[in-house]
Design a protein that fits this description.
The complex is a heterotrimer. By secondary structure, chain A is of the alpha/beta class. Chain A is built from 17 helices and 18 strands. The longest helix of chain C has 37 residues. The chains are: A alpha/beta, B mainly alpha, C mainly alpha. At the B-C interface, helix 1, helix 6, helix 7, helix 8 and helix 10 of B face helix 3, helix 4, helix 7 and helix 9 of C. Chain B: This is ABC transporter permease subunit. Chain B: Pfam families: BPD_transp_1, BPD_transp_1_N. Chain B: Belongs to the binding-protein-dependent transport system permease family.
Chain lengths: 490, 309, 268
């Protein structure tokens, strides 16, 4: 017996077809993973099945759930299924909880209004649900007082309170540390008990491996291959799937460092950093040498970015010394940002920004063209603005801009954490090449220990300082733009 | 707590500004001001040089300005506003007399604007871009372009002069409230509606709003349980800022319909160069703004626990 | 807020704004060229008389040509308003950037001052300044500038703080660019559209204020032709000559509507 079957689902934007006819079935006890990169149509496919597509898009095809057969184009028909037949897990749990309501009522209201329990019984059920997820103490907290993992568990309890047998999760590990990924997989697999169904949409190979079941690889809105997850991941048939698996840091070969270490570019001794009264880094000593890559890992909020600011001279250390090698220009110290869009002036064409930099540093006229070739960038991109270039291209343009300043040191702050795996491998590869060929010292920050282990010559793991947990959560929340107060108030 | 401290600082600086401005006003009174004030106080027949000199000395109209200024500010911070130059009554008593009438008018106007504006705004914000949303945009933009005095003028012409339904001026009966309250409320409602509409549209686009529906709640349940609360915070904060607009409206409208309130008195006091009255009234209005906003800060912090951080 | 949340600008909006403001400006500038005349010349014989070629809008209660009085009024308050907005914008822009760049006590003092001014009704401040300054027009200019700079300051400071802390500005500084370059290429493109909105809104506020005070007889003095003053003068003759009163009313509404539309329907 199948829980859900979708037949010939297409998604159209006007006349443009974003998802080709795709069919899938979901069986009790057997998870289905849809794997794909940004723009593969995997989220649109899931939204079409749930009836949550944006109003500007149109879906065709048929979805059968719970013995009822619904045309995918009939959005209103799906409303009755939410909470009762399908539990939809949100992408960003923090933003998915009402900021003005405590955790327990957000679960209880579904028990009462969807399942129809009386108020007292609904509260009891909600308390038990949260208890079962290890959240007993958190039930009276507001979302902004929860950590990311706690918020995710509250969201799962709330989504499932209506009693839906099918769980659909769209990118459930987006923005999570590697360590938390396994917890999420565990929670999702819990949904399979008692004959439930599970559909997971992700770009994350490690998560797919943990979920298991069956796998469907999607690219450009079409299915490339399907099969048992373990079989597809160990013996991929399609070339694209092979490329995708090769791009996973797990499959990278270790970088071989140049045998001869270059001269020291930057040295930090007994460095202690604080920001906003919080001790972030305590007594750190490190040395950066030309041609070498220093890997920096650690949990979110442990002070990785503040360390970068200090090394670049933008944050005064509380204690300790930072020494730059003699004879280097102040502009020989450059940085790559996690979000390259924010690192360029929003309204200026990219070419103009680059030409300004080239002029300031008296670069020869063909320097930009040469770097474009080297970084495999199309010259046509220069006419565009930062918002209309892909993340991978823009990060390479940011690297190009830094190279115009003839850097000796680049602090790369999570430069690929928002990029797809194949693009990530390209960018990291470029950085490693530059370190070798141009004798650059690079500090590479990543939350992915595997990536650092494969690429870095030396690794520093920043521990979370005592008493920093609440501050860490605050820092993460600040990065969630949606949790800020509405723009009207500012 | 820090919110209240910053409101306290605001109150002190407001008092300083009002003190400095009215001191400058006092010093710039034309030469025969003492004579004129004495005449206003004792009647033209009873003015003599001695009376004018007494007034001059009392007000510190001559002499070094620094000492006079310090004394002026000292009086202000002891809440000693002196007596009205026109009526000779203590300023505090005069204001106490007029405040009630203005408060009722202001409350009626705010109440009316809240009944009209936010419900329409929320309705529009639930479906951004719909026909209703666009019609409301046009209507509220047009209403915002009508200054309050012009609104009062139009209402007087239509409702009292042409149709004869309402008295154009007067005070004391409930029907006297209708015209000035509407003249004030329509402009406020136009802006309220926009704020509510934008707040609702942005709340409606938040992931938590969609997630509440995915949990299985109906549209009405989601609006009631998650929409209104979240819309109320920006709306409340805006209401606090709107207080200034309201006060300006009250000042002008009271003068037009002859409402015996603080605004009417203020315009009279400015006209007659009755500086102590101007000072007392201005301070009252400025501190009223600070008080209302401090209360709103507290209320908003209760509704939105994030604000306390 | 994302673009999707805001209503799409009315496609006819821009044309409407240009048409309204263009018409009012053309009338104010070209009115006396088309029909020469004097806004102050009285002719009691023509009291409240209807339109004629020498006075296309008819006459007021003192027999003065409404066409010429309106031309004068539509030059006077927009001119004062624009002067006040220009002063306020310049002051707010400079102080806002200084506050964001310097921080510390400079910023704190400016913010406290701006917050306190925000608590005082603008019209009240204008009234007090009018009582201090010798001339009425200069008094309005000074008072309105004093009230209006706060909005420009707040907008500039908020935008500058956010922009100056952005990775884009950090990158520019690391690359060796000086503050003039940063202000020109990073800050100004972010601030300029806000300034336009605030300027249109401030001009409307100023014109409303001048008219409101004129209407309650504490602004411009007779016989100066001013929008609010004209309305209050013609109000008693509503029954005899409704069009005479409606002329300044409609002109004021058109002017303010144009400016409100220019400021964008969603600004508060």
């Amino acid at each position: 017996m199948t829980l859900l079957s979708a037949t010939d689902i297409t998604v159209l934007d006007g006349a443009v077809r974003l998802v080709a006819p795709v069919s899938l079935t979901l069986n009790p006890g057997e998870p289905l993973v849809i794997l794909g990169e940004t723009g593969s149509g995997k989220s649109l496919l899931a939204q079409a099945i749930m009836g949550t597509l944006p109003a500007s898009l149109r879906a065709t095809g048929v979805v059968c759930i719970g013995g009822r057969s619904l045309p995918a184009g009939d959005r209103a028909a799906f409303r009755g299924l939410w909470g009762r037949q399908i539990a939809v897990l949100p992408q960003e749990p923090w933003l998915s909880l009402d900021p003005l309501m405590r955790a327990a009522p957000q679960v209880a209201e579904a028990h009462r209004l969807v399942r129809g329990l009386p108020g007292g019984a609904a509260r009891d059920r909600a308390a038990r649900d949260l208890q079962a997820l290890g959240l007993g103490a958190a039930s009276a907290l507001y979302p902004h007082q929860l950590s990311g993992g706690m918020a995710q568990r509250v969201a799962i309890a709330a989504a499932r309170a209506g009693g839906a047998p099918i769980v659909i999760a769209d990118e459930p590990t987006k923005g999570l540390d590697a360590a938390r990924r396994d917890d999420v997989a565990e929670l999702l697999l819990g949904a399979l008990a008692r004959g439930g169904g599970l559909l997971v949409i992700t770009h994350d190979l490690a998560l797919a491996r943990r979920i298991g079941g069956r796998l469907m690889v999607l690219r450009d809105g079409a299915v490339l291959e399907t099969g048992a997850t373990s079989a597809v991941l160990s013996a991929p048939q399609a070339a694209y799937t092979r490329e995708l698996i090769a791009a996973d840091p797990e499959s990278w070969s270790r970088r071989v460092a140049p045998s001869e270490a270059g001269q020291t570019v930057l040295e930090a001794r007994d460095l202690t950093l604080s920001r906003g009264g919080q001790r972030l880094v305590d007594g750190l000593t490190l040395e950066l040498r030309a041609g070498r890559i220093l890997g920096i890992t650690g949990p979110s909020g442990c002070g990785k970015s503040s360390l970068g600011d200090a090394l670049l001279g933008m944050l005064t250390p509380e204690r300790g010394q930072i020494t730059r090698a003699r004879g280097l220009a102040p502009t020989a110290f450059q940085k790559l940002w996690q979000d390259p869009v924010a690192a360029f002036p929003r309204t200026r064409p990219l070419g103009q920004t680059l030409r300004d930099v080239a002029r300031l540093h008296a670069a020869p006229p063909d320097r930009i063209g040469g770097l474009l070739d080297r970084l495999r960038l199309a010259p046509g991109l220069l006419a565009r603005r930062p918002g209309s270039v892909s993340g991978g291209e823009l990060q390479r343009l940011a690297l190009l801009r830094a190279m115009l300043a003839k850097p000796r040191f680049i602090f790369a702050d999570e430069p690929t954490s928002r990029l797809d795996p194949i693009t990530q491998r390209d960018i990291i590869g470029l950085l490693a090449d530059l370190a070798r060929s141009d004798g650059l010292a690079i500090a590479l920050v990543s939350h992915d220990p595997v990536l650092i282990e494969r690429v870095a010559d030396v690794t520093t793991c920043l521990p979370m300082q005592e008493g920093r947990k609440s501050a860490r959560d605050a820092a993460i929340r600040r990065k969630d733009r949606g949790m800020e107060r509405p723009a009207i108030l500012r | 707590m820090t919110i209240l401290v910053s409101r306290l600082v605001q109150a002190v600086v407001v008092a300083l500004l009002v003190g400095a401005a009215t001191f400058a006003m006092m010093r710039s009174l034309p030469g025969d001001a003492a004579w004129r004030i004495a005449a206003g106080r004792y009647g033209y027949d009873n003015v003599n040089v001695a009376a004018a000199e007494a007034v001059r000395a009392e007000l510190g109209l001559d002499g070094p300005w620094l000492g006079a200024f310090l004394q002026w500010m000292g009086d202000l911070f002891r809440l000693d506003f002196g007596v009205s130059l026109v009526s000779g009554q203590p300023v505090i008593a005069e204001i106490g007399h007029q405040l009630g009438a203005s408060l009722w008018l202001a409350l009626a106007a705010v109440g009316l604007s809240l009944v009209i504006g936010p419900p329409l705004g929320i309705l529009a914000g639930l479906r951004p871009g719909s026909l209703f949303d666009r019609v409301l945009l046009v209507v509220s933009t047009a209403l915002k372009a009508v200054p309050q005095f012009l609104m009062a003028l139009i209402l007087i012409l239509v409702l009292s002069v042409q149709l004869g339904w309402l008295p154009a001026a007067g005070y004391g009966q409930p029907r006297h409230f209708i015209l000035p309250a509407f003249a004030l409320a329509l402009g406020l409602a136009a802006v309220n509606a926009r704020i509510a509409r934008d707040a609702m549209a942005s709340v409606g686009a938040m992931p938590f709003y969609a997630f509440a529906q995915w949990k299985g709640l109906s549209r009405a349940q989601v609006l009631w349980r998650h929409g209104l609360r979240n819309v109320s915070v920006p709306l409340l904060t805006y209401l606090g800022l709107q207080f200034v607009l309201l006060v300006e409206g009250v000042v002008v409208i009271e003068s037009i319909v002859g409402w015996p309130g603080i605004g009417h008195a203020l315009v009279h006091a400015v006209f007659a160069r009755d500086v102590p009255m101007v000072q007392g009234t201005a301070l009252m209005l400025g501190l009223g703004f600070v008080l209302v906003n401090a209360l709103i800060d507290l209320l908003a912090a209760r509704i939105d626990p994030r604000g306390a951080r | 807020m994302t673009a999707a949340v805001l209503p799409r600008a009315l496609p006819t909006g821009r044309i409407l704004v240009a048409a309204i403001l263009g018409l009012v400006a053309a009338f104010a500038l070209l009115g006396p060229v088309l029909v020469p005349g004097d806004p102050f010349a009285q002719s009691l014989m023509k009291s409240l008389a209807g339109p004629e070629p020498a006075a296309p809008f008819g006459y007021d209660h003192l027999g003065r040509s409404l066409w010429h009085r309106l031309v004068h009024a539509l030059r006077l308050s927009p001119l004062i308003a624009l002067a006040a907005v220009a002063t306020a914008a310049a002051a707010g822009l400079v102080l806002g950037v200084v506050a964001a760049l310097r921080g510390g006590w400079v910023e704190r003092l400016l913010v406290i001052l701006a917050d306190a001014l925000l608590a005082l009704p603008g019209l009240l401040m204008v009234l007090i300044v009018l009582a201090i300054m010798p001339g009425t027009a200069t008094g309005f200019w000074a008072g309105l500038s004093l009230v209006l700079w706060v909005e420009f300051f707040r907008l500039t400071r908020a935008t500058a703080r956010a922009t100056l802390a952005s990775p884009a500005v950090q990158a520019a500084r690391l690359l060796g660019f000086g503050w003039p370059y940063v202000l020109r290429t990073h800050l100004w493109p972010e601030i300029a559209p806000l300034m336009l909105t605030a300027a249109a809104f401030g001009t409307a506020t100023a014109i409303m204020g001048i008219a409101a005070l004129g209407f309650v007889s504490v602004g411009m003095r007779a016989p100066t032709p001013e929008l609010g003053l004209m309305m209050v003068e013609l109000l008693p003759y509503w029954r005899e000559a409704p069009m005479a009163l409606l002329t300044p009313v409609l002109a004021t509404f058109a002017l303010l509507l144009g400016l409100t539309l220019l400021a964008g329907g969603h600004r508060t």
